[in-house]
Write a structure and sequence with these properties.
There is one protein chain. The chain is an alpha/beta fold and 203 residues long. It has a single domain, classed as NagB/RpiA/CoA transferase-like (Rossmann fold, 3-Layer(aba) Sandwich). The protein has eight helices and ten strands. The strands form two sheets. It has a six-stranded parallel beta sheet. Strands 8-5-6-9 form a four-stranded mixed beta sheet. Strand 5 and strand 6 form a beta hairpin. The longest helix is centred in the last third of the chain and has 19 residues. The two termini are 17 Å apart.
């Protein structure tokens, strides 16, 4: 079990705004109130799906979410639109007590969206994503989150079939094409906010 207080302090030292909630419902209510009248982009995230944020936010915002598309062509078109929105929301595959965020990406839209081009970025994550060190967070992202996500998407990779670890495959369905570590808040983004939920969410 991670030391959540230590993680929060580490993130704040690195320039992030941090909010902690007991439940996904509390976090969803907060985000629904905080984001109003904006153009919003989503990174592909099971956590955001579990929170039903697409449904909530699109009632009073313009929301682009690649998950809610059919076929690769539409996915790419919508994913490109998310890169220039006012607000971008995504999750992470893992985070460390020492204040790092780790994401693995196959297409690149989640990683790209978290880096540049928005006034505000939210990282929304369950406490299950936390690890004591960056090394352990990297291991979790590659050997727990990636296989589960590949299986969820029905991809043809060894990790999706066996669901136990990364096999360092080189197939066309590989979702481990890029690994991004956020060491601290990016410059030229007005605010990057970390929302931690004291529940197990996402992969």
């Amino acid at each position: 079990m991670i030391n959540l207080e230590k993680a929060v302090k580490a993130f704040e030292r690195k320039g992030y705004t941090v909010k902690v909630f007991d439940t996904k419902e509390d976090a969803a209510e907060y985000l629904d109130m905080a984001i109003d009248g904006k153009i919003v982009g989503f990174g592909d995230s099971q956590t955001l799906l579990d929170m039903e944020l697409f449904r909530k936010l699109r009632e009073h915002n313009v929301v682009f979410d690649p998950y809610h598309t059919s076929g690769n062509k539409e996915f790419v078109e919508v994913a490109k639109k998310t890169l220039t929105t006012d607000v971008f929301l995504t999750s992470v595959n893992a985070f460390a007590e020492t204040g790092e965020l780790v994401n693995i990406d196959g297409t690149g839209n989640r990683v790209a969206g978290s880096l540049f081009g928005h006034k505000k970025v939210y990282f929304v994550m369950g406490v299950n994503k936390g690890e004591e060190t960056l090394e352990k967070a990297m291991w979790r992202a590659q050997n727990i989150a990636a296989p589960q996500n590949a299986k969820r998407k029905g991809l043809n990779t060894p990790c999706a079939v066996k669901g136990d670890k990364c096999y360092d495959c080189n197939g066309p369905d590989c979702i481990c094409n890029a690994i991004m570590v956020h060491r601290r808040k990016m410059r030229n983004t007005d605010d990057m906010e970390i929302v931690i939920i004291k529940e197990d969410l996402g992969m």
